[in-house]
UniProtKB/TrEMBL annotation:
Tree of life domain: Eukaryota
Keywords from the UniProt entry: Amino-acid transport, Membrane, Transmembrane, Transmembrane helix, Transport
Subcellular location: Membrane
Amino acid transporter transmembrane domain boundaries: 36-146
Membrane-crossing segments per the record: 40-62, 74-93
Record flagged with keyword Transport: yes
Pfam families in UniProt: Aa_trans
Protein name, UniProt field: Amino acid transporter transmembrane domain-containing protein
Any Gene Ontology biological process: amino acid transport
GO CC list: membrane
Keyword match Transmembrane helix: yes
Amino acid sequence: MKMAGVTAAKNQHQVFDVSLPESGPKCFDDDGRLKRTGTLWTASAHIITAVIGSGVLSLAWATAQLGWIAGPSVMFLFSFVTYYTSTLLAACYRSGDPVTGKRNYTYVDAVRSNLGGFQVKICGLVQYLNLFGVAIGYTIASSISM
């Protein structure tokens, strides 16, 4: 039984709703996690913000350093490498069958299911070294910008 005063006071202080969607089989994927709600537009927005945030600011400087022939050639080469690695990563999303196989939610999961063994430790080490290097790079770049 709810008391009217308590319900009214609770609604006045409620900032946001963190309740899960209605339960049922249509709300969950085949592995028991909540279904993703991303669309082509949200994926495109994430890609654009990632590209603009990381590389576009230094693009003019890099082209000026390499010249008008080597600059666009290197950009084309790197775009091909990015495309190739993203297709490899997409192919490793599910291990086994590409439709019903087990999902790999992290890089380490993909390495574990495809390579296994010592390569998992190497992958984790490389990821942490990359994270450490990027943190140092952003720290130096932000201090120079200040």
